[in-house]
Amino acid sequence: MELAGKVALVTGSARGIGRAIAAALARKGANVVINYAHSESEARKTEEMCRSYGVETLVIKADVSKRDEVRRMIDEIIGKFGRIDIIINNAGILGKSKNPIDVTDEEWDAVMNVNLKGAFIVIQEALRYMKKGKIVNIASIAGKDGGTVGPHYAASKGGLIAMTFNLARHLAPDILVNAVAPGPVDTDMINDELREKLRPLSLTGEIAKPEEIAHAVIFLLENDHITGEVVDVNGGRLMD
Ligand code: NAD
Asked: Which of 66, 137, 222, 224 could covalently link to 89 via disulfide, CB atoms 3.0 to 4.6 Å apart?
């Protein structure tokens, strides 16, 4: 798919991987909708990066786990652009507990509601208007091998991968649905201790840069014969 002139929503794109994906889309000439939950000033920085490529942008605050906010966001996108061609479900939270015994019901629900249900709500609301296009869900290596994180995070990402397969079947051939499953990425989601612990686990001896994830997303968007696929970007840590 030619990305120039398309309208792309990137959830959680005020920073980190989402910001890198937004910038990569803009570099390809796509108009970018920058969604954020907390920091408008950071979202505006992403917008500035995108605008430097001469594309149109829209910044929208919406919690992806809340249907009314997502519905309003999608309506606003349609109001401005009249279309939506690309959805990147990137918004995600790690949850603070790693030890299964520490995970409260509230924490379990919060992680599931953002990482899994949120991605579904965004797709479902967008499908009211989106008849053709591409969806990429940002999963995680934890969704495939369990990871070194909390069980709720791993389950949410495993669920996101299963949902990717299911939607790929339902929405083909008009909408192609794929996922990217990163290993550790150098963003604010992981702290220095975790970064140093995880670095040696990849064969490249490195933590991925957000741009490496964005690169895989662009590859999936530009290719018109891949659907129901999960692209691993983990420096060879997991081979399957
Ligand atoms: P990050 O914390 O820097 O970015 C996540 C973004 O999502 C933040 O801007 C946050 O405000 C936003 N967000 C959180 N809850 C939201 C909500 N309810 N509604 C809208 N936005 C919300 O982390 P990141 O590393 O850039 O993570 C991006 C995605 O990549 C996440 O889905 C994460 O699970 C996944 N991932 C990250 C890593 C890693 O090591 N950093 C590895 C594998 C997968």
From this structure: 137
Domain count, the chain: 1
For 166-187, write each residue's pLDDT tens digit.
999 999 999 999 999 999 999 9
Sheet holding 230-233, edge to edge: 57-61, 31-36, 7-10, 86-89, 133-138, 175-182, 230-233
In a domain, 217, yes or no: yes
CATH number at residue 94: 3.40.50.720
- Ligand 1: residue whose CA is nearest its atom 39: 185
HSE value, Cβ hemisphere, 13 Å, CA-based, for 47: 16
Residue of the nearest CA to atom 33 in ligand 1?
92
**Position 175 in a domain:** yes
Q: Residue 48's CB: how many other CB atoms inside 10 A?
A: 11
Q: What is the DSSP secondary-structure string of 142-172? A: HHHH--SS-HHHHHHHHHHHHHHHHHHHHHT
Q: Report H helices in 82-208.
A: 105-112, 118-126, 142-145, 151-171, 192-198
- Domain presence at residue 210: yes
Provide the 10 A C-beta neighbour count for residue 66: 16
Closest ligand 1 atom to the C-alpha of 65? Answer: 18
What is the pTM for the complete model shown?
Answer: 0.98
Q: Is the residue at 63 inside a domain?
A: yes
The Å distance, Cα 222 to ligand 1 centre, comes to 23
